[in-house]
Fold:
Amino acid sequence: MIVITYDQNSDHRAPTKESKAKGETMAQSDELEALTRAFSGHGVDERTLIAVLGKSHPEKRKTFRKGNPHFFKEDERSFERWDDHRIKLLKREFMRFKNAVVLWAMHPWERDARLMKEALTEGPDSYNVLIEVACTRSSEELLGARRAYHSLFEHSIEEDIASQVHGPDCKLLVALVSAYRYEGSNLKEDTAKSEAKILLNAIKSGEKKTQDEEVIRILTTRSKPHLKAVYKYYQEIGGSNLDEDLKSDSRLEETVQCLCTPEKYFSQVLDLALRPDADKSTKKAVTRVIVTRADVDVKEIDEEFSKMYGVHLSNKIEDTANGNYKEFLLTLIAKGD
Structure:
């Protein structure tokens, strides 16, 4: 005979209505929190939006609206509506993935030409992009971008800079985009040391550096190996780094960093762009830098980023970006491995 015994101490009671309701409330709270995160950061989490928002009923969407006053607001008639500013921000976030894919698929020359045109259109806050393209591309790549600019916009980049940029920045930017630098390894150490002294004297004089003919000549005509030697001798002679001594002149500081320490420059740009309080112009740099450097030096940028900020770029992207945009950026960064 088989005897079936029961443990009277075990609890096999069916869940009560109260426990069911509590579980449903917690699940709903988790979903709403996930939905809020899906709308926050760089890009949007498309899968969460589909899984949660797409399948939601009217009451759940109402709860979401009530729980997110920074997305929705009530007017004087108690009408519940999207915040107009938030709509603009969300449209921008939805576009990040599309923009990254379009940029990636472009010929590099067209991509650089369009980036320079956009920088000119946006004004002084984006002139660093002109320096970036002029100083981190090879001579042939820069020449190709200038040719693409001709074809796309029926102007030369030089004449557009000359007509749209005012003040001392104009001379520097025209000279940088016009450069066709020697790319061999030969350099004269004595000349590099002499020009390091010239730069040191010009900087210590306190005069406006972008108006100094010798400063412009050295930075816009010399090869990158030569300028890296100048950078080294400047540190040896003056006891400080050239770019650090140029902090009062952001255009020259960016020029020196792009020519001599591009990994440091790009790491700083990415750090600013990935901060929660970054403005729309600054945030665009994430796409621009990762897309344009994926086939070049993204591995070195990742290493420098880790050295400077204590976290790998891929991990920072993982924590900051969302959805397809995040996956695309991580895929491009992985190309450097």
Summary: The first strand starts at residue 72 and ends at 74. Residues 1-6, 20-26 have pLDDT under 50 and may be disordered. The longest helix spans residues 17-38. The chain has 19 helices and two strands.
